[in-house]
Amino acid sequence: EARRKIEDINKQELESLPKNLHILYSIQYKELAYTISSYLKEKGHKIMRIEQVLGCSIIKPKADLLLIGSGRFHAVSIAFSSGKPVYIYDNKLARISEEEILSYKRKEQGKLAKFYSSNNIGLIISSKPGQNKDGEKIIQSLKRKYPSKKFYLFLADNINLQELENFNIDFWLNTACPGLELDSNNIINYQKVIRANN
To answer: What is the DSSP string of 36-71?
Structure first.
């Protein structure tokens, strides 16, 4: 595991954080996350939980969130899905703004609209442990819900977005790493489609 070298933390900025926090970190920042957690506890903050976050993590926040790392897309996605204030720390403290959340929401709504108007839908399934889903079961569920659409299953260990362009697919549903969605307006997470229709 590559680790980010700990630099001096900005104590004054960190002390301005809410008193109850749920701390998230990407693996390179693990040591820094625990250093910050210890410092905040000394200053009277209550750390409700501290955990590593991955692109495919489902976060159930216990309090306002502090993400220690450089992946702003994680922070915006978490702010959108959790409804909680999200702060991000990478040498300096920032808060995910309402504008960023609204922009993310508009993109998601645009993708949903594109899904609804598409006929040929590709379902991306990863064979990697922790990401793999039962594609056949998901497709059967989608066929019942959207009988006018055609669904195709794509199973791979490594997903190459350029290779997806070789198929006559109008829109892609992703059950693998959510990071895929950031690079294409034709991909949305399968769970977001399900949530939007329940």
So the answer is: HHHHHHHTT-EEEEEEE--TT-----SSEEEEESS-
Residue carrying the six token digits 């922009």: 103
At 78, give phi and psi (nearest 5°).
Answer: -65, -40
> With contact defined as beta carbons under 8 Å apart, do 149 and 127 qualify?
no
pLDDT tens string 171-195: 999 888 777 777 788 888 888 888 7
Integer angstrom CA distances of residue 100 from 59, 96, 106, 120: 19, 7, 10, 31
Which pair of tokens denotes residue 34?
């625990």
Return the axis-axis angle of helices 72-82 and 98-117, rounded to nearest 10°: 80
- Structure tokens that stand for 75 in this block: 């922070």
User: Which pLDDT belongs to residue 193?
Assistant: 85
Contact 49, 62 (CB under 8 A): yes
Q: What is the pTM of this model?
A: 0.76
Tokens in use for 119? 């006929």
Identity of the residue numbered 132: N
Written as one string, the DSSP assignment of the chain is: ---PPP----HHHHHTS-SEEEEEE-GGGHHHHHHHHHHHHHTT-EEEEEEE--TT-----SSEEEEESS-HHHHHHHHHHH-S-EEEESSSEEE--HHHHHHHHHHHHHHHHHHHH-SEEEEEEE-STTT---HHHHHHHHHHH-TTSEEEEEEESS--HHHHTTS--SEEEE-S-GGGGGG-TTEEEHHHHHHHT-
